[in-house]
Amino acid sequence: MDIRNTGYSRVGYTEGDNIKDNFGTRIGWVEGNDIRNNYGSKIGYMDGNDIRNTSGNRVGYIDGNDIRNPSGSRVGYFDGGEKNLAGAAGLLLLLQ
């Protein structure tokens, strides 16, 4: 599943539970609802449609296929697929 920015450019994709940048390098993965960086550290989690950091603060959310920041601005979108994985991947890719 491709993750795209608001300019419609692909910034990365998912392959299974892996989150990869546009060059195919794994930058993290999703484990259940947890979002992990490539070192295995938990950097956040999905809570319904909300994307939260490890402190529980809302750092984004999924609205349909759109990935939005906390103020509601669209920062990107995903092309189909499972929302938890898409949200995690999208935010990790778009905000790195």
Largest sheet: 10 strands, antiparallel, barrel
Percent of residues in helices? 10-25%
First-last Cα distance: 19 Å
Mean pLDDT: 85
- Please, how many domains? 1
Q: Which spans of ≥5 residues are poorly predicted at pLDDT below 50?
A: none
Characterization of the model:
This protein is mainly beta. The chain has one domain. The chain contains one helix and ten strands. A ten-stranded antiparallel β-barrel has the order 1-2-3-4-5-6-7-8-9-10. It starts with a strand and ends with a helix.
Question: Can you lay out the helices and strands and say which pair or pack?
Answer:
Elements: E1 2-5, E2 10-15, E3 18-21, E4 26-31, E5 34-37, E6 42-47, E7 50-53, E8 58-63, E9 66-68, E10 74-78, H1 83-95
Antiparallel strand pairs: 1-2, 1-10, 2-3, 3-4, 4-5, 5-6, 6-7, 7-8, 8-9, 9-10
Structure, briefly:
The protein has one helix and ten strands. By secondary structure, it is mostly beta strands.
Task: Give descriptors for this structure.
96 residues; ten-stranded antiparallel β-barrel; 10 strands
